[in-house]
């Protein structure tokens, strides 16, 4: 495929990308969060715009420049992200869940700032499960909509990725290894794109934009397979 095809091969498609990491408030000033910077999701939005797609980027707590040409919706909690994605996905041809979604949220959100008291140990923080947005999107989609997720794994990366793809019911899972120095907040990434039905594409260590382009290639292949 020549460069001309690359320019516009997503033209006429609406794609929804989530980026960043959700935060779950404990009280008005504190939250449970994670280390996701949003860079991989922004790279996905940028490359999809460059390839001609209409792009909705649902951004959770990112501090990155808005990608030109994308519609950006800012959210913070998992509940907000879920609502925004559901809405945006209504007419979407693909949804890519690059955001790190909090698995749990505090069972109670204190109305006022939690205070410490002399001579008293802190109360334990009770948590409840958040809904699995990727699994919901995978279960609810019309034929022809491609749903992709990311898997952050620290051990048995491929085996865990395969099991996760099956559990979520999505079409594609981008599996990368994370840790203090790997992936989070860095400019580069290294991953394997696993496909439902068996395909596997290794993307060597390199810029997040390159991984993003390989992900759109895989999405476009799935569209071609169902049309
Ligand atoms: N995800 C989601 N909703 C959640 C949790 C995760 O949509 N409540 C999505 C993420 O955006 C990501 C994918 O699911 O695309 C995998 O996230 P990950 O944390 O690796 O998977 P989990 O199912 O939460 O498994 P684990 O127990 O390993 O964290
Ligand atoms: Ca998780």
Automatic annotation (TrEMBL):
Residues that coordinate or bind CTP: 103, 113, 131-134, 150, 164, 168
Domain DNA/pantothenate metabolism flavoprotein C-terminal: from-to ranges: 10-220
Cofactor stoichiometry and binding remark: Binds 1 FMN per subunit.
Chain segments annotated as coiled-coil in the UniProt record: none
Start and end residues of each stretch annotated as Phosphopantothenate--cysteine ligase: 15-227
Pathway note: Cofactor biosynthesis; coenzyme A biosynthesis; CoA from (R)-pantothenate: step 2/5; Cofactor biosynthesis; coenzyme A biosynthesis; CoA from (R)-pantothenate: step 3/5
Co-factor requirement: FMN; Mg(2+)
Catalytic activity: (R)-4'-phosphopantothenate + L-cysteine + CTP = N-[(R)-4-phosphopantothenoyl]-L-cysteine + CMP + diphosphate + H(+); N-[(R)-4-phosphopantothenoyl]-L-cysteine + H(+) = (R)-4'-phosphopantetheine + CO2
Keyword hit for Metal-binding: yes
UniProtKB keywords: Decarboxylase, Flavoprotein, FMN, Ligase, Lyase, Magnesium, Metal-binding, Multifunctional enzyme
GO MF annotations, alphabetized: phosphopantothenate--cysteine ligase activity; phosphopantothenoylcysteine decarboxylase activity
EC number: 4.1.1.36, 6.3.2.5
Record-stated family: In the N-terminal section; belongs to the HFCD (homo-oligomeric flavin containing Cys decarboxylase) superfamily.
Role of this protein: Catalyzes two sequential steps in the biosynthesis of coenzyme A. In the first step cysteine is conjugated to 4'-phosphopantothenate to form 4-phosphopantothenoylcysteine. In the second step the latter compound is decarboxylated to form 4'-phosphopantotheine. Catalyzes two steps in the biosynthesis of coenzyme A. In the first step cysteine is conjugated to 4'-phosphopantothenate to form 4-phosphopantothenoylcysteine, in the latter compound is decarboxylated to form 4'-phosphopantotheine.
Protein name: Coenzyme A biosynthesis bifunctional protein CoaBC
Naturally occurring in which organism (per UniProt): Streptomyces johnsoniae
Lineage: Bacteria, Bacillati, Actinomycetota, Actinomycetes, Kitasatosporales
Gene name of this polypeptide: coaBC
Section covered of the full-length record: 178 to 404 of 404
């Amino acid at each position: 495929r020549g460069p001309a095809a690359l320019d516009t091969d997503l033209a006429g498609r609406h794609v929804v990308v989530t980026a960043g990491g959700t935060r779950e408030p404990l009280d008005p000033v504190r939250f449970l969060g994670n280390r996701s910077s949003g860079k991989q999701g922004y790279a996905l939005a940028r490359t999809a715009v460059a390839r001609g797609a209409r792009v909705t980027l649902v951004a959770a707590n990112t501090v990155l420049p808005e990608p030109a040409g994308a519609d950006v919706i800012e959210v913070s909690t998992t509940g907000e992200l879920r609502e925004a994605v559901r809405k945006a996905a209504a007419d979407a041809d693909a949804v890519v869940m690059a955001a790190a979604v909090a698995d749990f949220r505090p069972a109670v959100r204190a109305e006022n700032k939690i205070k410490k008291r002399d001579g008293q140990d802190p109360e334990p923080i009770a948590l409840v499960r958040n809904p699995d947005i990727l699994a919901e999107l995978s279960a609810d989609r019309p034929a022809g909509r491609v749903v992709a997720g990311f898997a952050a794994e620290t051990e048995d990366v491929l085996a865990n990725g395969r099991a996760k793809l099956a559990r979520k019911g999505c079409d594609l899972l981008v599996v990368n290894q994370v840790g203090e120095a790997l992936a989070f907040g860095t400019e580069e990434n290294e991953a394997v794109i696993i496909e439902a039905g068996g395909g596997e594409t290794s993307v060597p260590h390199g810029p997040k934009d390159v991984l993003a382009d390989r992900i759109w290639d895989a999405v476009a292949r799935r569209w071609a397979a169902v049309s």
